[in-house]
Design brief:
The chain is mainly alpha-helical and 225 residues long. The chain is built from eight helices and six strands, in the order H-H-H-E-E-E-H-H-H-H-E-E-E-H.
């Protein structure tokens, strides 16, 4: 039981290596390109996680932890952020190679504007709740920066990867929230859940993947320059 969260992280890490079995689209070189972006995402998102832990928006069940922590955040949570980013970028890479057509990119701004509108609405109604406030503020900053400041165009491919990533997301979080490995303060989120998974988790996952994709595409553009 002590190693449950740790083992779960290890299983998530295997996703890009499993996809690599399709040697035509996802080789070792592509695996290497997602390691550094995943570390950068871990550094940034862990700051969000440290803050949410500090304000007690969520807590971790010590029965499922090895006991090591840094700045109040369990070691497994740092590994979880890295694993989730690594798996998401692995899926992003795989889909881009398997389905290179990007014709639907022209619709991505409309989707992003819709997400920005949803984020603003949740901030308006949930600004007194730490989990809701932090998650949607983080997402809005990323969406606005990527769509209106950044010049790289990849949002259709990002949304495609996000939809696919929802499959392991539900498996992972339903398991984590029902054991529970992680517990959420009901006073700090909007109390909309699916199988005990808070609505905000979906948007935190979106932010994590979006940040990873942006960093990945930024480094890719530098290599090609």
């Amino acid at each position: 039981m002590t190693y449950t969260f740790f083992i779960l992280n290890f299983l998530i890490l295997l996703i890009p290596f499993f996809l690599m079995l399709d040697g035509k689209v996802n080789g070792v070189e592509k695996i290497k390109t997602i390691i550094l972006p995943s570390f950068i995402v871990t550094f940034i998102v862990s700051e969000v996680a440290v803050f949410l832990t500090g304000v007690k928006a969520w807590s971790f069940n010590v029965a499922y932890l090895v006991g090591a922590s840094y700045r109040g955040l369990p070691l497994e949570e740092y590994l979880f952020i890295f694993s989730f980013s690594f798996a998401g970028l692995g899926i992003y890479n795989y889909l881009n190679a398997k389905f290179p057509n990007n014709d639907l990119q022209k619709y991505s701004l409309a989707v992003s504007n819709l997400m920005i509108g949803i984020g603003i609405a949740f901030l308006f109604f949930g600004h007194t709740k730490w989990y809701t406030l932090i998650v949607f503020a983080f997402l809005l900053l990323l969406l606005f920066g990527v769509e209106y400041i950044n010049r790289l165009r990849f949002m259709y491919r990002f949304y495609r990867a996000f939809l696919v990533m929802l499959l392991p997301f539900y498996g992972i979080y339903i398991y984590m929230c029902n054991l529970p490995i992680i517990q959420y303060d009901e006073n700090q989120h909007v109390k909309i859940t699916l199988a005990k998974v808070p609505l905000e988790n979906h948007f935190l996952m979106m932010s994590t993947l979006l940040l990873g994709v942006y960093v990945f595409e930024f480094f890719k553009s530098r290599r090609q320059a």
